[in-house]
């Protein structure tokens, strides 16, 4: 049979045991602390990045410029590094410049051309409308490059080079920004001549330039009108419908002309018309009779033009016409032909013998 024994330990005998336990706890705590520090240090060390793929496409950079014209791929603003050269001095001590950003703008016709030095008009509008519901004009500049000091915010930048225009949005902070605008524009130099090389009165020739699309009423949008020969019109690269008028009646020639970026297109319109002066006379070579009312009819009998006077003058397109003269209650008719480039007088004779001879010629 087993018996249970007892062990009695006095206070003096407990001291060595307590010291041993205290030492053990200190050593264990030290190991625990050291492990925690190593773990924290391991978590702070960044993991090595994967080796970049040299064939991977470059990530798209965020651009604060948004082109508002539905035209691809130009016109646009580029963020290419440009030398910042303010067009006016700026003193930071002046109160109007504190907290503002600087926007430096340049423009060129094509991506490969040099920046334009003149002919540009820059307009800066606030993006929000005013109390009248209109965009507020903040600043303007004319010439070549332009520099603006603007409060932080979003703005609309309108650029005009002749009739080539672009509107873009830009966000301004307190930094300096440089932007290059590619207008993608060219021009047309207008000229006029007769089809057979005959001279033409350029003072009576005008040109109207229209877009190629039609509105809801079936009409083209007129871009510029009454352009005179020898003039240069700057336009965005596109195809345009050009209407040339020689005089104010029916001598009209239409053509579609393409404008290439960075190029000047010389467009010479060839007309087939002549300047005609009408006279009502009692006999061939006689004096013109005043107070005469005139109607010029087409070969189909439609009225082409009407006038009153002794010497009405018209530019008429090539073709056959009938002159109808009314004077003192009587009406006189005369058929005539317009030959391109042959300006002349057309006499309508009142004498009965002359009218009879004309009738015989027509009958034969």
Task: Describe what this molecule looks like in 3D.
- It is a single chain.
- With 364 residues, this protein is mainly β.
- It is 13% helix and 47% strand.
- It contains 2 helices and 23 strands.
- The protein has helices at 11-44, 352-363; strands at residues 66-67, 76-78, 101-108, 120-129, 135-143, 146-150, 153-161, 164-172, 176-182, 185-194, 205-214, 220-227, 232-236, 238-246, 252-259, 264-271, 273-281, 293-298, 303-308, 313-317, 319-327, 330-338, 344-349.
- The strands form 6 sheets. Strands 1-8-7-4-5 form a 5-stranded antiparallel beta sheet, with no helix packed on it. Strands 2-9-3-6 form a 4-stranded mixed beta sheet, with no helix packed on it.
- Strand 21 (319-327) and strand 22 form a beta hairpin.
- The longest helix has 34 residues, at 11-44.
- Residues 1-14, 28-52, 58-75 and 87-95 have low confidence and may be disordered.
Query: Residue share in helices?
Result: 10-25%
- SSE ordering: HEEEEEEEEEEEEEEEEEEEEEEEH
Distance between the termini: 168 Å
Number of distinct beta strands: 23
Shape: elongated
Concise structural overview:
By secondary structure, the protein is mainly beta. It is built from two helices and 23 strands.
Task: Jot down its keywords.
2 helices, 364 residues, single chain, 13% helix, mainly beta, five-stranded antiparallel β-sheet
Reconstruct the topology from this structure.
Blueprint lengths: L10 H34 L21 E2 L8 E3 L22 E8 L11 E10 L5 E9 L2 E5 L2 E9 L2 E9 L3 E7 L2 E10 L10 E10 L5 E8 L4 E5 L1 E9 L5 E8 L4 E8 L1 E9 L11 E6 L4 E6 L4 E5 L1 E9 L2 E9 L5 E6 L2 H12 L1
Parallel strand pairs: 3-9, 10-16, 17-23
Antiparallel strand pairs: 1-8, 2-9, 3-6, 4-5, 4-7, 7-8, 10-13, 11-12, 11-14, 14-15, 17-20, 18-19, 18-21, 21-22
């Amino acid at each position: 049979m087993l018996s249970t024994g007892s062990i009695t330990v006095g206070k003096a005998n407990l001291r060595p045991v307590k010291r041993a336990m205290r030492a053990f706890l200190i050593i264990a705590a030290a190991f625990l602390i050291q492990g925690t520090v190593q773990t924290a240090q391991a978590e702070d060390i960044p993991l090595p990045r994967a080796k970049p793929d040299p064939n991977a496409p470059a990530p798209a950079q965020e651009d604060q410029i948004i082109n508002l014209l539905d035209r691809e791929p130009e016109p646009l603003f580029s963020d290419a590094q440009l030398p910042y050269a303010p067009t006016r001095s700026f003193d930071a001590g002046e109160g109007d410049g504190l907290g503002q950003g600087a926007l430096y703008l340049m423009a060129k016709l094509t991506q490969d051309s040099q920046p334009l030095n003149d002919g540009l008009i820059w307009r800066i509008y606030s993006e929000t409308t005013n109390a009248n519901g209109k965009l507020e004009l903040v600043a303007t500049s004319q010439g070549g490059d332009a520099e603006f000091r603007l409060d932080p915010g979003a703005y609309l930048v309108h650029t005009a080079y002749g009739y080539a225009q672009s509107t873009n949005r830009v966000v301004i902070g307190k930094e300096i920004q440089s932007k290059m605008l590619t207008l993608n524009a060219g021009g047309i130099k207008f000229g006029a001549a007769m089809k057979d090389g005959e001279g033409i009165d350029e003072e009576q020739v005008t040109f109207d330039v229209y877009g190629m699309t039609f509105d809801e009423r079936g009409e083209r949008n007129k871009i510029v009108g009454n352009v005179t020969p020898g003039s240069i019109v700057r336009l965005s690269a596109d195809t345009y419908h050009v209407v040339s008028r020689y005089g104010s009646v029916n001598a009209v020639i239409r053509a579609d002309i393409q404008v290439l970026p960075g190029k000047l297109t010389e467009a010479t319109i060839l007309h087939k018309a002549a300047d005609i002066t009408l006279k009502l006379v009692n006999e061939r070579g006689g004096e013109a009779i005043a107070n005469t009312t005139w109607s010029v009819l087409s070969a189909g009998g439609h009225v082409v033009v009407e006038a009153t006077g002794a010497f009405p003058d018209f530019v008429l397109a090539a073709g056959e016409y009938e002159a109808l003269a009314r004077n003192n209650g009587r009406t006189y008719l005369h058929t005539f032909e317009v030959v391109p480039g042959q300006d002349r007088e057309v006499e309508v004779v009142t004498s009965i013998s002359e009218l009879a001879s004309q009738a015989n010629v027509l009958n034969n």
